Amino acid sequence: PEIADPSPLELCDDAVADGMTQFDLTQANTEILNGLDPTLYTVTYYTEVADAEIGPSAPSYIAVPTAYTNQFTPQTLGVRVEDN
């Protein structure tokens, strides 16, 4: 499907001040789907952009996108959208 590049998700660092914080990646789903019906598509996230082509069997698949802590700052993630 035609999808859109989402705006960056930006949050302030937590109290540890190490540059890491927890993100809910699914907040970007509406922007990524760009008007597509979210019940008809599955959005998955990956720490390696190239692994988005492989799908959920990829080693960098983010199993819990609602509670993802970045690995470094800034970090670019891969996104896969599949027609259900």
Explain this structure:
It is a single chain. This protein has 84 residues and is mainly β. It contains 1 helix and 4 strands; from the N terminus they run E-H-E-E-E. It has one helix at residues 29-33; strands at residues 22-23, 41-46, 68-69, 78-83. Helix content is 6%, strand content 19%. The model has no long low-confidence stretch (mean pLDDT 91). A two-stranded antiparallel sheet has the order 1-3. The chain has a two-stranded antiparallel ribbon with strand order 2-4.
Helical percentage: under 10%
Largest sheet entry: 2 strands, antiparallel
| Relative strand content | 15-25%
Mean pLDDT value: 91
Low-confidence stretches are: none
Number of helices: 1
Write a brief structural summary.
This protein has 84 residues and is mainly beta.
Write the layout of secondary structure elements.
Elements: E1 22-23, H1 29-33, E2 41-46, E3 68-69, E4 78-83
Antiparallel strand pairs: 1-3, 2-4
Structure keywords:
two-stranded antiparallel ribbon, 1 helix, 84 residues, 4 strands, mainly beta
